[in-house]
Design a protein that fits this description.
The protein is of the alpha+beta class. 26% of the residues lie in helices and 43% in strands. The chain has one domain: Mog1/PsbP, alpha/beta/alpha sandwich (Protein Transport Mog1p, Chain A, 3-Layer(aba) Sandwich), CATH 3.40.1000.10. A 7-stranded antiparallel beta sheet has the order 3-4-5-9-8-7-6, sandwiched between helices.
Length: 185
């Protein structure tokens, strides 16, 4: 009986670890499941987000992009994060020119580069970075993920994290939401 319990526990651990993405491993995230969630679909029906049903959400669209902005407004700003996701029309090449342009944008916005990586997101190449600065008299961290979806479309997610506490924990919560994005088209 004891061996059976140990075997089952090992199987659960192995399968749980197998589901963890390289991105979540980069931040040493533990797997989390969102409870009491609702699905939000962007205006152009490109993707769906599963978020807690208490979060406030705004949608935006133009002929080139469709965005979902969402945040937990029940928590203090320094305990939560603001998530902006968008599906964009346009050519995107994740190469040295793109990375240099990103670096110059960070520099122009007085953001200090913390770390970055190139990974796979939803079976496509993706680039992510974390930067730090000051915004609205708060210490501010930004996590950004950009992933090419097709020859002329890409997905972008930006997470604004205010304050200095539980930064990686809040990035992990955002990653958990992003890993459950469902692309419709």
């Amino acid at each position: 009986m004891k061996k059976t319990i140990i075997l089952i526990a090992c199987i659960v651990v192995v399968f749980s670890c197998a589901k963890q993405s390289k991105l979540s491993k980069s931040f040493e995230c533990s797997l989390t499941e969102i409870e009491n969630k609702k699905e939000i679909t962007d205006f152009n029906n490109n993707f769906k987000l599963s978020i807690p049903n208490t979060w406030k959400t705004n949608l935006y669209f133009s002929k080139h992009e469709s965005e979902i902005f969402t945040a937990d407004t029940l928590k203090q700003l320094t305990e939560s994060f603001i998530l902006s996701t968008s599906y964009n029309l346009g050519n995107l090449t994740l190469n040295d020119k793109f990375y240099k342009k990103t670096d110059s944008i960070l520099l122009n916005n007085n953001l200090e580069f913390i770390k970055s990586g190139v990974d796979t997101y939803k079976n496509n190449k993706a680039y992510w970075y974390v930067a730090k600065g000051s915004k609205n008299n708060f210490t501010y961290h930004q996590f950004n993920l950009t992933s090419k979806r097709s020859e002329n479309t890409y997905f972008n997610a930006s997470v604004e994290i205010y304050g200095d506490t539980k930064i990686d924990e809040r990035i992990c919560e955002a990653i958990s939401i992003l890993e459950n994005v469902e692309f419709i088209k």
